[in-house]
Amino acid sequence: MSKRTWIIFVVVVVGLLVGLVVWSRNNGPQIDVASIDQNAIQVASERNGFIGDHVLGNPQSSVVLIEYGDFQCPGCKSAYPRMKAIVEEYKEQIGFVFRNFPLTTRHPNARAASGAAEAAGLQGKYWEMHDLIYDNQTAWAGLTGTERADAFASYIEQIGGDRTTFTNDISLDTINQKISFDQALGKKATVDSTPSFFLGGVKLPGDIWGDDAKLRAAIDAELSKAGIPLPIR
User: Fold this and answer.
1) What are the tens digits of pLDDT across the range 69-89?
2) What pTM value is reported for the model?
3) Domain coverage including residue 174
4) Among 79, 75, 69, which Cα is nearest to 101's?
């Protein structure tokens, strides 16, 4: 092998290794969830980096509404205030779970945003950060590197968290594990777009979750099936 050929070979190998590192950082580890019920609320375990599902409403309810969402997805941003209002209405009756499903090929900052939300969750600030990230989507969506990191770090301060702890936590392997675990559950549930919603283990079509009246009717039907009284209206 000539010196020139050897140099080319080394450059190609280094390029492949760098590509694998970038791919791993963007996509995370592959996780086997074949034995896991993706329709059940997930508790903290080794598989999800010891970070369980974040539940809004009643975590003990047998009626669970699950969203697979992407923080940089405009459609997810539009859905979030509606879902927040619906869950507030049913907070005694249902549990609402948000799972990370960043579509990084379309939304390069989506996984970083998921990491920010999960890091805030380690300080008990998950839902506050979830909301703030969506509220400010247009502000951070185009940022990169230090600017993006500073934006998310400023959000933790706005919601009363500790910036230094947040900055350290956001790069933890356990957070990367949690995001990849959520994605694996989504893939098992055949999620191919965001937002995707599942109620009682059944994927809701867009004309149901996109219409407040139809979504309420679907939730009411699940509650009645489970023998749970409807909220007083």
Assistant:
1) 999 999 999 999 999 999 999
2) 0.87
3) 31-226
4) 69
